[in-house]
Automatic annotation (TrEMBL):
It comes from Lasiosphaeria ovina. Belongs to the 5'-AMP-activated protein kinase gamma subunit family. Residues 1-76 are annotated as: Disordered. Residues 179-244, 255-314, 323-386 form the CBS domain. This is CBS domain-containing protein. It holds the Pfam family CBS. It comes from the Eukaryota.
Length: 396
């Protein structure tokens, strides 16, 4: 997709909306900036574009053939195969830094208190521990808080109860709001990293706990949690000889989502945006102005400060207000153009803390979104025979 000259918003003006942009050719000539650009109006943030590489002008917008033919295709496939081999000889344990901190929360903790702990520690998720059975009890993520918010919306008369919920109540909350519980997957730290990636793609999990068995007690121990971000960073830092071969523009490889984009405006309520995230099963909603220009992105983790201290009524406040509560060290929003290439995106991942890239045209109008899951999926699965995918899928 395509130029967003006159976005078609299908919902109430000012409210969160699903907007689709009409197809039109992208005007050429704009360049990506090297490094952050400062754009400050209201709650707009500095955007960061991948470093520019020489970008060959694409001649077609069709998906590439499965069989590599041109030298560019061959090089791209060589890069992808190299990365896949790398992931097969490295383990999940290799991704962990030499020293790291792991915050594990007891299942008996009040949900309200868990929010403060995450915020104080600057983290957005934590493994849960069932101390009664001395067992790993799943992963607490922003999705759980979104479920609590949905519960609050469905049963507003139970607000006093919501404050008394413990982390162990999360499964019951899921049941009462009718959410299908996510499969709790984990991997052994010494298994190939490729296995963790395939498991993440199969379950749509954005993070996966590494669970080992204690030699003495025979009980499960959570070693750490690895995320899509950590894995892609690991590839970017340690496998540059293959990432530099990925020279095809994102437009040509169909990387990301370009239609039926869920978007909102600064005046949308936080609740509306959460509703979009739940309906579309997505972790971020681009915030645009009336001309479809990208102003910011509301991420699932932005929900956490909104409900700190049980202030659920603040969910009715605007996205603009909520975004102003972000930590001062927030890294900014990463953008790219459809002519950018995966090698430059990996270069950006190598240098920065990127969780997604928003695709914009030369006038900063929203074109699409590239999630880390899109990148991981492409890197692992593109060009694989369906049979191979199914075979590995049943093994993992
Ligand atoms: P994520 O939740 O970021 O892992 O993304 C899951 C899938 O949804 C990916 O294929 C994304 O390209 C797509 N996606 C992410 N955000 C949006 C959005 N706001 N609107 C439509 N699709 C999205």
């Amino acid at each position: 997709m395509d130029d967003a000259r006159t976005p078609t918003e299908k919902a109430n003006p000012g409210g969160a909306s699903i907007a689709s942009a009409p197809a039109a050719p992208i005007s050429a000539g704009g360049e990506n900036a090297n490094g952050p650009q400062q754009l400050r109006h209201g709650h707009e943030l500095p955007f960061v574009a991948p470093s520019s590489y020489l970008r060959p002008k694409p001649t077609s917008r069709t998906m590439p053939e499965k069989t590599a033919s041109s030298p560019l295709d061959k090089e791209q496939m060589q890069g992808l195969r190299g990365i896949r081999e790398f992931l097969k000889v490295r383990t999940s344990y290799d991704v962990l830094p030499l020293s790291f901190r792991l915050v594990v929360l007891d299942n008996d903790l009040l949900i309200k208190k868990s929010l403060n702990i995450l915020l104080q520690n600057g983290i957005v998720s934590a493994p849960l521990w069932d101390s009664r059975n001395s067992a790993f009890a799943g992963l607490l993520t922003s999705t759980d808080y979104i479920n609590v918010i949905q519960y609050y919306c469905q049963f507003p008369e139970e607000i006093d109860q919501v404050d008394k919920f413990r982390l162990s109540s999360l499964r019951e909350i899921e049941r009462r709001i009718g959410v299908v519980p996510l499969e709790t997957v984990s991997v052994h730290p010494m298994r190939p990293l490729y296995e963790a990636c395939r498991r993440m793609l199969r379950t749509r999990a954005r993070r996966i706990p590494l669970v080992d068995t204690d030699d003495e007690t025979g009980r499960e121990t959570v070693v750490s949690v690895i995320t899509q971000y950590r894995i892609l960073k690991f590839i970017a830092v340690n496998n540059e000889q293959h990432t530099v071969l990925l020279k095809k523009p994102v437009r040509d490889i169909g990387l990301g989502t370009y239609s039926s984009l869920a978007t909102a405006t600064m005046g949308s309520s936080v609740l509306d945006v959460i509703d979009l995230m739940v309906k579309h099963n997505i972790s971020a909603v681009p915030i645009v102005d009336q001309n479809f220009k990208l102003l910011n992105v509301f991420e699932a983790v932005d929900v956490i400060p909104c409900i700190k201290g049980g202030a659920y009524e603040e969910l009715a406040s605007t996205v603009g207000d909520a975004l102003s509560r972000r930590a001062d060290d927030f890294g900014g929003i990463y953008i790219c153009g459809e002519d950018d290439r995966l090698d430059s995106i990996f270069d950006t991942i190598r240098k920065s803390r990127v969780h997604r890239l928003v695709v914009v045209d030369d006038d900063s109008r929203l074109k699409g979104i590239i999630s880390l899951s899109d990148i991981l999926k492409y890197v692992l699965l593109f060009g694989e025979e369906e049979d191979d995918i199914r075979q590995v899928g049943t093994m993992i």
